Structure formats: C-alpha cells, structure tokens
Protein: AraC family transcriptional regulator
Amino acid sequence: MQVMKGYPDRLTIEDFLAETPFCFFSQRLDELCPLHWHEFYELTYILSGNGVNTVNGTDLPIGPGTLFLLTPADFHEIRPLENEELRIYNFIFKETLIDPELRERLFRGDKRIACCDDAAQTRRAADFFRLMEEECAAAGRFGAIRIVRNLLDSLLVLLCRGEQEERPAQTARSPYHPGVQRALLHIQHHFREPLTLEDVARESRLSANYFSECFRQQTGIPFQRYVMDLRLEFARSLLKASPLPVTEVCYVSGFNTLTHFEKIYKRKFGQSPRVSRAASPAGGTRDSG
Structure:
C-alpha cells in the first residue's frame, strides 16, 4: 500500500474501501513508509527482511514471520534496516469483518497492539496470505469473498495463539464484566472519535446508569476520564513521534478546542504540548499551531 510522504497521512475508508470491505496488497519496501494512520484495520505479515515498525511512538522490531494487526486508533511508520528490503503482505479491512470473539481475545483488557513473531504459530500465515491474494484477484469468482473472510479468521486465530504463547501465565478470562470488556474494546479503537456515555453503553448492552457505575467500579475512573486519558496519551505520543502542529494534534486526538486541550494536557503531564514537542526528537520547526 503506497503511502504519500507527509506528516502524517490519514488513509480513509472512502479512499481505500469505498466499494469493498477489504483490499489486499503485496509490496516491497526499501525505504521508510512514513507516519500515517487509517480508518480501517490493517493485518500485515513480513515475508522477508528486517526492520522496525514504530506504533504509537514505540519501536517494535519486525522480521520474517512477524504478524501484526493495527486498529483505527493507531498511528505508525515502517522502515527496513539499512541495506535491507522488506517484502510484505498487507490486508486492510473494515471493522465489520473482525469476529467479536477474536477481537476480544486479541485486545483483552487494555491491550492495544496485537503482534506475534512466533514461528510455530505463524509459519502457515504466508500460505494463507498467498491464498488470500489469489481470491482477492478473482473477487468475482463464486465464493471468493467467503474464502477471504475465512482466511482472515484463520490468520487472526494464529495471531491469538501467538499472543497466548507469549503470555502463558495469563488467565483466559477477562477480569472485567463482559459489558465493560465490550465497552473497553470499542473505546480503545474509537477514542479519537466523538464518544458519549450513552453510545458506549449501547455497545456494552447495559443501561447508561448501570454501565457508568460498573465502568467506574471496575476501571477505577469515570468513563469520561478514561476516554480523556487515552486521548492525552495518544496526543503525547504523536507530539513525540511527528512534527505535526499542536493544533492538528489537538483535533486528531479527539479534542474540540485547543484551549481545553492545552489546559488538561498541562494538568496531566506537568508541561504544555509545545514544551513536550520541543523536548522530543521530532519537535521543532513545523509547529505553527
């Protein structure tokens, strides 16, 4: 998937998935794929080469067999190591295609990133991606869409298994009420969008009053504070990872006014967004907001 150079690009459903629920890419990357985010899920498999996937400001090493899934709440960039080329399978898809049970297993609790490089769990992933590529190329063929969806489920199951191998001591059951767990998943993937307690309560399948009480008891903070903290952490990561102007960081992080954003940012982190920007490696010249 070719990404235009900029700070950063936003890849929209309208541009990539307006007429289809998914799209497949096979690509070679010998230079930086610059910082971007997208309105859809992105499942990626590294066929060959070594590099770094910087997700929400955190560097994650990638190499042959690495399989990872990013959500609409993430921003990232990928770069190969010096003198290397990354060969990548990339599958993007709308949220409606991800099975709720698999999503819960992949993003249990407050986990944000699903990634695995366990060869025992991902050695079949390349074959699944090759089959997916064939079916996507013949989308008009009977049953092609159904096969692609089944292959997506299979790849996500491999990712779940890899996650379980990396966390063998973790219990399979979420510590949260099922309704709160559903709400947390929804919030984690949509916190940059307008979110009301009533909307999220519907996702949790609980009444608004009961959801509010249950959420506060189990997370330790009120719903609105939880959403605000996610937005502030996202904003701080974006300030450190990119030269995006503070004004734009404010809005893309989910805040409506710059004054309010600057006030609560300083209250939480003890310094203004501009001071955070100046202290970061990406800080400096482009901050006109």
